[in-house]
């Protein structure tokens, strides 16, 4: 296109230049012809009698195709051989000017005035020769210029097309090689592409090969780091499993014997002993909850936690959670209620129970007066679970932070009653169910946690990943951002 535009512009400029030159030459020829005709007739009429001057002038006008006038020095027309003589004033102006350009019945014309002496004073011969706006041979010039332009532009276009095809072939070659690298089952690191030219495409190919080399090195380093991370993750899982077993065995024994002693089957206990054993049992239960939270978080991070999803009634699970939490609520003189109706969700019932228990437990833990409300309603495509409390509320800047591991909002005294893992585990479990959790809270006005779970199983699309990642680290590197 550039070659075509430049060629047409050059041809147009050449045609305009040639036409202008032809017009200048045509004007010069008309001027010379006008001068020669006037001078010749003036000399001829000087030797001709007055009676024959009209015949000579009309014959000359007829043969030459020019317009001729014989004018006296005072501007009177003596012989008129034109299609219409100018007025007297204009004739005087033309005779004074001597030569130049004017307009007559013939159109744009060149004129010349030649004087000769007569018996009654000087006479002037005025000749008018047409100077056409379109010079002679302009059509031929334009045809030849157009032909030459077409030939030159065609040749240039062919050369440009050949170069473009070569460049397009090189680009297509590079593109096909890159597409082969991106196909399923291909080597993820790729192979260098042969450089077939030294133009910009060649530079691009060389730069891409450098990128492939860097990616290969990065992929090698990534696999080494991945192997180390997998080994570390396995060691950590083994350590946590062993630690859980070693901690739970004596802890279960402590809790069991504490319950036996509190039941007073071996005899009555004093008030101090009963109080001390209650502290031991509460501390042991707190330690067991801490161990369970750490193990759940480890299973989530390592990808070992699996959901067993089916259609469940979330409202019935909420009723069970409320019954269990009512004891803790009554101990703090709080009201806890559940409203709503039967709502079916496609989820893991055990984990949904854990999700609701974590949020309800937090609400009771941080609420001093008032109560906690659990509302469960079906919605389009899912189930909405809303837990509201009348607690101190959460500052806006802490809304995201409370979902992080080992972090709690509120004063230091309240932070010590928990591990700071409950909401972090809750959000990950909600996300595993393809749902989301949202928080609305204001300081001094309480908080509302809204959880949405799907009511239909996911649509499975069969596809094979290009570079599968082992299940052990599927979730280990994910950022737990707010949904």
Explain what this protein looks like in three dimensions.
The protein contains 10 helices and 12 strands. It is of the alpha+beta class and 483 residues long. It folds into 3 domains: 2-139, PAS domain (Beta-Lactamase, 2-Layer Sandwich), CATH 3.30.450.20; 192-305, Helix Hairpins (Orthogonal Bundle); 309-473, Heat Shock Protein 90 (2-Layer Sandwich). It has a 5-stranded antiparallel sheet with strand order 2-1-5-4-3, sandwiched between helices. A 5-stranded mixed sheet has the order 7-9-10-12-11, covered by helices on one side. Strand 3 (99-104) and strand 4 form a beta hairpin. Helix 1 packs antiparallel against helix 4 (138-182) and helix 5 (200-262) packs antiparallel against helix 6. The longest helix has 63 residues, at 200-262. The radius of gyration is 53 Å and the shape is rod-shaped. The model is unreliable at 412-416 and 462-483 (pLDDT under 50).
Provide a compact summary of the structure:
The protein is built from 10 helices and 12 strands. By secondary structure, it is an alpha+beta fold.
Shape: rod-shaped
| Proportion of residues in extended strands | 15-25%
- The CATH architecture of the largest domain can be given as 2-Layer Sandwich
The major β-sheet equals: 5 strands, antiparallel
């Amino acid at each position: 296109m550039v070659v075509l535009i430049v060629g047409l512009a050059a041809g147009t400029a050449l045609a305009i230049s040639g036409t202008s030159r032809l017009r200048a030459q045509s004007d010069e020829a008309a001027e010379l012809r006008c001068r020669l005709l006037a001078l010749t007739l003036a000399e001829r009429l000087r030797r001709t009698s007055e009676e024959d001057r009209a015949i000579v002038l009309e014959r000359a006008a007829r043969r030459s195709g020019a317009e001729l006038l014989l004018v006296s020095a005072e501007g009177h027309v003596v012989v008129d051989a034109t299609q219409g003589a100018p007025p007297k004033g204009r004739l005087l102006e033309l005779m004074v000017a001597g030569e130049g350009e004017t307009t007559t019945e013939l159109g744009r014309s060149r004129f010349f005035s030649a004087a000769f002496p007569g018996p009654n004073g000087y006479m002037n011969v005025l000749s008018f020769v047409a100077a056409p706006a379109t010079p002679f041979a302009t059509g031929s010039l334009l045809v030849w210029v157009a032909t030459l332009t077409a030939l030159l532009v065609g040749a240039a276009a062919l050369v440009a097309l050949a170069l473009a095809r070569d460049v397009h072939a090189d680009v297509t070659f590079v593109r096909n090689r890159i597409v082969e690298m991106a196909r399923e089952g291909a080597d993820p690191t790729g192979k260098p592409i042969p450089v077939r030219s030294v133009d910009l495409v060649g530079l691009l190919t060389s730069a891409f090969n450098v990128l492939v080399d860097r990616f290969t090195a990065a992929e090698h380093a990534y696999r080494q780091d991945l192997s180390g991370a997998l080994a570390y993750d396995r060691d950590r899982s083994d350590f946590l499993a062993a630690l859980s077993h070693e901690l739970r065995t004596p802890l279960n024994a402590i809790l069991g014997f504490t319950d036996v002693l509190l039941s007073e089957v071996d005899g009555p206990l004093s008030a101090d002993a009963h109080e001390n054993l209650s502290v031991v049992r509460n501390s042991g239960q707190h330690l067991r909850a801490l161990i369970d939270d750490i193990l759940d978080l480890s299973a989530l991070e390592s990808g070992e936690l699996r959901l067993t999803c089916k259609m469940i009634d979330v409202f019935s699970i909420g009723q069970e959670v409320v019954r269990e939490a009512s004891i803790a609520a009554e101990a703090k003189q709080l009201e806890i209620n559940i409203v709503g109706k039967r709502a079916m969700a496609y989820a893991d019932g055990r984990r949904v129970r854990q999700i609701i228990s974590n949020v309800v437990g937090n609400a009771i833990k941080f609420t001093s007066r008032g109560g906690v409300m659990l509302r469960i309603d079906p919605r389009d495509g899912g189930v909405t679970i809303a837990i509201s409390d009348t607690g101190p509320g959460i500052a806006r800047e802490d809304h995201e932070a409370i979902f992080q591991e080992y972090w709690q909002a509120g004063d230091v005294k309240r932070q010590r009653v928990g591990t700071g893992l409950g909401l972090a585990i809750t959000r990950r479990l909600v996300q595993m169910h393809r749902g989301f959790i949202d928080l609305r809270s204001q300081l001094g006005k309480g908080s509302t946690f809204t959880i949405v779970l799907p009511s239909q199983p996911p649509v499975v699309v069969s596809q094979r990943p290009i570079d599968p990642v082992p299940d052990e680290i599927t979730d280990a590197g994910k950022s737990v951002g707010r949904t």
